[in-house]
Specification:
The protein has 195 residues and is mostly beta strands. The protein has helices at 2-24, 40-43, and strands at 56-63, 71-75, 88-96, 105-115, 122-131, 140-148, 154-162, 170-180, 185-194. Residues 1-19 form the signal peptide.
């Protein structure tokens, strides 16, 4: 009898953990779009995929040089330093599903980043990720925090959002996947986690 009660207790727990593992794996559809970004018609009529931990990943493309930069220098400190202290850039960077610039465009990152550290390359990031594809089209996430570029993984808080992300709380982890300072092009992988 006690064994049967234990199994009845255990079954929903195992079912919940399996559902969590499937949702966290972030599967892809046959056309390469992550499930979390699929248009509603591909997920079934009126069905909205719930955010689970971890939620999703995308790539940020920042171009600071050339004829069509996505990040523009608007202020520079009075003296040149090795950390670029005092530099301010305004950005309108594309967000894509994969690390290649030619992969699906899912939105934009708009805001500023400021070199705010005299000792190391530490940026203050103030940005909004606005999504334009799938269920989250028109919704946005706001991230404000320190981004120390020499760290392999940087963590910054999600401070809010709009649309389906209204009142969002959590954090993002940023990992630079490629950077070429000679042409001013950087790709950063962002993974969003919600609490």
């Amino acid at each position: 009898m006690a064994r049967a009660k234990f199994l009845l207790f255990l079954l929903p727990l195992v079912s919940h953990l399996l559902a969590f593992a499937v949702s966290a794996s972030g599967g892809e559809s046959s056309d390469g779009l992550p499930d979390i970004l699929l248009p509603s018609s591909k997920q079934g009529q009126g069905h909205m995929k719930m955010l689970r931990f971890p939620a999703f990943r995308f790539y940020w493309h920042d171009t600071s040089r050339g004829s069509d930069p996505t990040a523009v220098l608007v202020a520079q400190g009075p003296t040149q330093t090795k950390t670029g202290f005092g530099m301010v850039r305004v950005m309108d960077d594309p967000l894509t599903v994969g690390p290649d610039r030619s992969s699906y465009l899912i939105g934009k990152s708009q805001g500023i980043y400021v070199s705010a550290d005299k000792q190391t390359v530490g940026l203050l990031m103030v940005m909004t990720f606005t999504f334009t594809l799938g269920n989250y089209a028109g919704s946005s996430l706001t991230v404000v925090g320190r981004n120390e570029l020499k760290q392999q993984v940087r963590e910054m808080p999600i401070t809010g959002g709009t649309g389906l992300f209204r009142f969002a709380q959590g954090y993002v982890q940023a990992r630079t996947t490629s950077s070429d300072p000679t042409i001013g092009y950087t790709v950063v992988e962002y993974t969003c986690y919600f609490i």
